[in-house]
From TrEMBL:
Protein source organism: Adineta ricciae
Swiss-Prot/TrEMBL cofactor(s): FAD
Record carries keyword Transport: no
Homology family: Belongs to the FAD-binding monooxygenase family.
Name of the protein this chain belongs to: Cyclohexanone monooxygenase
UniProt keyword terms in alphabetical order: FAD, Flavoprotein, Monooxygenase, NADP, Oxidoreductase
MF terms (GO), sorted A to Z: monooxygenase activity
Keyword Amino-acid biosynthesis annotated: no
Domain of life: Eukaryota
Upper lineage: Eukaryota, Metazoa, Spiralia, Gnathifera, Rotifera
Length: 159
């Protein structure tokens, strides 16, 4: 089918993937009394382009979704005091995104088709060499769980 852009260009595609995210419309907090707050207020969905100076400031972050998880450590480096308000804790580990070194690239390239098949056949669509995804964390002992969490935490990302 055809898709027309805002400039009038027509594009023919079999699939159209709208990767805009489920939270693409900013949501203001609805907290009783928030309008009485006299300090500055920022929303991660509408972050200013210029740097914000949190040095020697008391800062409160409401929410620990993906934006909160990413911004809290950076704000904490600068703020005199940081208060975090969360309803539901989320799970997060460092991504550890880095370029592949030559040896890692050779490993992936050597067995590319095998890695690709594993990726296509996993429940979540990703594969980390050397890790198994064939059992639930809840099906093993707490000690085994802890060891697996530590290993995956060191690897980072979607490990």
């Amino acid at each position: 089918s055809n898709i027309q852009t805002h400039t009038g260009e027509s594009i023919s595609a079999k699939f159209c993937i709208m990767a805009t995210g489920c939270l693409s419309i900013p949501k203001q907090v609805d907290i009783n009394g928030i309008n009485n707050f006299k300090g500055k207020t920022y929303y991660t969905s509408q972050w200013p382009h210029e740097n914000i100076n949190f040095h020697d400031q008391r800062v409160a972050v409401i929410g620990t979704g993906s934006s909160g998880v990413q911004s809290i450590p950076l704000i904490a480096e600068e703020a005199a005091h940081l208060y975090v308000f969360q309803r539901t804790p989320c799970f997060s580990i460092p991504a550890r995104n880095t370029p592949l070194d030559l040896q890692e690239e050779q490993i992936w390239n050597k067995d590319y088709n095998e890695h690709r098949q594993k990726i296509l056949n996993t429940y979540a669509g990703f594969h980390t060499p050397g890790l198994s995804y064939d059992q639930s964390a809840l099906s093993v002992s707490p000690e085994t769980q802890q060891k697996a969490y530590e290993t995956r935490g060191q690897l980072g990302g979607l490990s």
